[in-house]
Amino acid sequence: MLHQSRRDILPVSLPGNCDNDDTNDMAPLMLGINININIRPESSRSDWRKVGLGVVLALVGLASVGGITYGVWYYRREAMMMDPTLDTALSSDPLPYDRVPALWGDDFECLGWRATAGCDPGGERTPQYDKTCDTAIGLGDAGFCEVRNRTSLQVYRVMATTCRGVIGLKTFTCNMAEEFTDFSKQAATYVHDPAPQFSGVRRGIVFSVFKKALPGVFAIIKVLRSYGCTLPIEIFYRADELHAQSNVLVQALLQSDPNVVLREITDPHATKFRTKPYAVYHASFDQVLLLDCDNVPLRDPTYLFDSPAFATHSAIFWPDLWHPSHTIFSVQAQNLLWQYVDMPFWDVFEQESGQ
């Protein structure tokens, strides 16, 4: 049996007749209950809808304001970073960095990253953005590393960079400054282990291959022979990338062409792109034509060795697609590369590595 006290229905007052009939007395109660269920929840849902709509509109408004603010900030930042006048920031007089006179030895001490304004390493100092020696410096950071000689107490500014000194997710820290400044001095006096000495053939073609490149190399060699090219060919490979003894294409090539020789790359540091200079250096030829697996000559390339350009310069390079104003490797005036190798920026097309 469901019971509701009189006190429970007092808040509900509805018009009704004054008959003393029990049924009539219950009518207001039943009607009140029905109104409580059918009307009040509808009103509550309507209020919640309004609140929800208000919240959504507020969030959309905040997102719009945030998007516009970020867009303006990003545009200004990009405009500042791409300012062409910054291309001379690292070659201006005076330079925004110092040349360390000698190898560091045990005297190196890092003091920290010193931030500057305007994407210019020679710009106004912004100490609030300074960083410690082990904090990553990346795209958008401008300034220089401050280091000191422990013995002489001489302070140097090195690794000066604009906001475009490094690209993408690449970063560096000021703790790298010792090796960074030492490199150009070590490179100037470096003498590599001599390549194996061979006698006989002076000229030849070299490929650096991996398994997926083999079909292209196989086809190129067949094309070269169809032109009447008789130059000997050496194919350099890494044993961890290509099992030459069991590879069908390799064995077919060796059996069909006695002027093709396999050369294994044994230097653990010669990987990926580095296999190309390794192949050129270790080839048994005095004069080398390096071809990529996707570089198909349109004629017998033997004539290149007798061309005036080669006779004059002893080397010929072909331009690649990329240029400082359109480069995927960031080979442009503001790159840290030029300080690293201690060379001036060279505004030319990048060279194709494999022809």
UniProtKB/TrEMBL annotation:
GO terms for molecular function: alpha-1,2-mannosyltransferase activity. GO terms for cellular component: Golgi membrane. Keywords: Golgi apparatus, Membrane, Signal-anchor, Transferase, Transmembrane, Transmembrane helix. It comes from the Eukaryota. It is found in: Endomembrane system; Golgi apparatus membrane; Membrane. It holds the Pfam family Mannosyl_trans3. It is a single-pass membrane protein; Single-pass type II membrane protein. One of its GO terms (biological process) is mannan biosynthetic process. Belongs to the MNN1/MNT family. PANTHER family: ALPHA-1,2-MANNOSYLTRANSFERASE MNN2. This is Uncharacterized protein.
